[in-house]
């Protein structure tokens, strides 16, 4: 294994271990080479997340299969051939049973049997947090420890089977992610309105300053023109000829 590939394997292995999933480096290396033979050029954060997701899903499938009860193969007893008398007795007994069944009244509206609570699956908070962390990675989200705790608290503790437990956790993760996206969208909308209001206020202030500047300049120019006229009159008066006496 090259140094570059070993670093990638060690990094993924630490991430899985932090999420209560112990996987050997060989398994991780084979999964990388299986999905991305050209990992040297194709590697990215998305590729890393996809490798983690694939390994996590394989591990979950293995856990589900391991949890299923193994079929029991009972040895078939060796049956001796029946004598003619035994066959006759069995035939007579079957006819009697058929008659009894045919004469039984038909019963309707039987109440369904009560659920056997002993078959339900009880999970602890640690179980829920571990599955939330693992499943969030499989879905492409990396939640913090505090976020995993929040999601786990919203999940029930009793389920009919492991599949319903997994479905409930997945639904809770998606609900939490939707909530976070809603918060971000709301913040964007609020900030956008605030920025628009700020820009409109600054534009109004600038327009007012421009208008004031124009008014002041006009006033100053008017004053300058008046001063020029006065100065011109004074100058011309100095050069005026005295009037002749009559």
Model description:
The chain has 246 residues and is mainly α. It is 71% helix and 2% strand. The chain has eight helices and two strands; from the N terminus they run αααααβααβα. It has helices spanning 3-18, 25-35, 39-42, 45-67, 84-103, 125-138, 145-153, 162-238, and strands at residues 121-122, 158-159. The chain has a two-stranded antiparallel ribbon with strand order 1-2. The radius of gyration is 44 Å and the shape is elongated. The chain starts with a helix and ends in an 8-residue tail after the last helix.
Write the layout of secondary structure elements.
Elements: H1 3-18, H2 25-35, H3 39-42, H4 45-67, H5 84-103, E1 121-122, H6 125-138, H7 145-153, E2 158-159, H8 162-238
Antiparallel strand pairs: 1-2
Helix pairs in contact: 1-2, 1-4, 4-6, 6-7, 6-8
Short descriptors:
mainly alpha, single chain, 246 residues, 8 helices, two-stranded antiparallel ribbon
